[in-house]
Amino acid sequence: MAPSPFPIIVDLDGTLIKTDLLFETASALLINRPLAILYALIFFCREGKSRLKLFLSSAIELDPASLPYNLEILGWLRQQKKEGRALVLATASHRLLAESVAKHLNLFAEILATEGEINLKSYEKQKLLVSKYGEKGFDYIGNEMVDLHIWKSARNAYVVSTSRRLITKVKEIGNLAQVFDTERPPVWQSLIKAMRPHQWLKNLLIFVPLFAAQLYPDIPSIINATLAFIVFGLSASSAYILNDLVDINDDRHHPRKKLRSFAAGNVSLLYGWLLWPTLLAVAFTISIWTLPRVFILVQATYLALTFVYSFFLKKKVIVDVITLAGLYTIRIIAGIAALSVPLSFWLLSFSMFIFLSLALVKRFSEIKSIQSFESPVKLAGRGYYLDDLELVSSMGISAGYISVLVLALYIQDISITHLYSRPEFIWLACPLLLFWISRIWLIAHRGRMHDDPVFFAAKDKVSWLILVGFVFLFLLARFI
C-alpha cells in the first residue's frame, strides 16, 4: 500500500512526553539559580510567554534522553514512520527544546515550535497547520482541551487522555481515530505516593521518649506525642516532595528512583512546587497552636537540616550519612520536646549509632545496585564510587555494633534503677539487636535490601518478631 500523503502532527508536552517542558525548565532554574527565577517572572510580565520560554530554554540544558516518554505513543510513531508516514513535531515548547528532543528521537521530518513572538499553542498552532497543510490535510495527536481547535481542522484525531469529557468532545467533532492511554495513574494517587506516607513510620521515633519516660498511661502526653507525629509526618512529606523536585535528573538515571511520581512524569512539577510549601504551612500551624515552643524550634531545625541536606549535604561523602542519622535522632528530640521530659544522652547516643548504621545500609544498597546496570562507577547525585562498597560496609557494621555496646552500658547506669526494677532483663535485648543488625547487613550484602532499610524492616516478619521481643524484655524489666 502507498503511504498516506497526510502527515501526522505530534504534540510534545503531555502527549509524546508525560511532562511539560515549561515547568521542567522553570523548575530546573529555580533549583540551580533561585534568584534568576525572579528575573524570569519579570521577563514574563514585560515580554510575554514566548520570550519567557526562550529565556528558560537558553538558561537550562535539557537532557532529552532522560525525559519520561509515553512509550506506547513512541512505539506507534516509529511504526507509522516505518510505514512511510511523515511525522511533524508541533509544540508550544520553544524551538531550542523541541530540536533537542527531535534530534534525540530521530523521528521527525519537520519541527514547528514556539519562537519569536509566536507562542505555538491552540489557535496559533491551528492557523499554522492549516496554512501549511490545508483544512483536513493532516492528522493530529494531542492531549488537552486547547487542542480541540486543531482536531476540528484535522482529518483524523488521535487523543492521548483518560478524560471522558475530552474524549466525548472529540467524538462530537466526528473524526476520532484512536485513543491512547496517558500511562499515568490518577493525579491524587501520584501525589499521595510522592508524599510517601509509608515513610511516616520513621516518625514513630517520636513516641520513643513516651515509653522511655514511662508516660504511656498519661493521656495529655499521648495526645502531644500524636500531634507531634502528625506535624513531623507533614513536614517530612513536604521535604520528600522538595527532595524529589531537586533530585529529578539524578532520579531519572536511577533504575528504581526513575519510577517516582515526578521523575516518571506521573504528576506535573507545578503540583509539587505548590504542595510542599502548603504541607509545611499546615504543619507549622498545628505545632504553633498546640505544642510547646521548644518543639517548634526542633521542628524548624529538622526542616532546615533537611533542606540543606537536599540541596548540598547529600552530595558530600560521609557528611550525608551522618546528617541522615542526625535527622533520625532529631525525631527523638522532637518527642522529648513535645512531652517536656529531660534529654537522655544514653538514648541519643544509641539513636545516633544505630541510625548511622542504617544510613550506611541505604548507601551501601544504592552503590551495590549500580553494579548490575550500565551505570558510571560513581553513584549519580552522590559522592560514592563502586570502590567504596566495602569501606561503607565496614563503617556501617561497626556503627551498628557500637549501638549494642551503648545499650549494654546503659544497663549499668545507676539512674536506670528508678525506671526498672530488674534492669538485668534488658541485657537480653543485646543479642537480639546484634542478630538484627548482622542480619540486615547480610541481606544488604546479598543484594536483597530495599534502598531504605527502615521500609524493609517494616515489611520484614523477623524484624517485627525482634521488636516484640524488645518490648517484652523491657516490660519484664519494668514490672517483675
Topology, please?
Layout lengths: L7 E3 L10 H12 L3 H12 L1 H11 L11 H12 L4 E8 H11 L4 E5 L8 H11 L5 E4 L5 H6 L2 E5 L3 H10 L2 E5 L6 H9 L12 H5 L6 H28 L1 H4 L17 H22 L2 H19 L7 H21 L5 H25 L19 H22 L18 H17 L7 H7 L1 H19 L1
Helix pairs in contact: 1-3, 2-3, 11-13, 11-14, 11-15, 14-15, 15-16, 16-17, 16-18, 17-18, 18-20
Short description:
Helices cover 59% and strands 6% of the residues. It is of the alpha/beta class.
Find the CATH topology of the largest domain: Rossmann fold
Distance between the termini: 88 Å
Outline the low-pLDDT stretches. Answer: none
Number of helices, where a helix is a run of at least 4 consecutive DSSP H or I residues: 20
**CATH architecture descriptor of the largest domain:** 3-Layer(aba) Sandwich
What level of helicity do the residues show?
A: 55-70%
Largest sheet: 6 strands, parallel
- The run of helices and strands is EHHHHEHEHEHEHEHHHHHHHHHHHH
Query: Which outline best applies?
Result: elongated
Strand content: 5-15%
**Class derived from helix and strand content:** alpha/beta
Tally of discrete structural domains: 3
CATH class of the largest domain reads Alpha Beta
| Largest sheet strand order | 3-2-1-4-5-6
The CATH homologous superfamily name of the largest domain equals: HAD superfamily/HAD-like
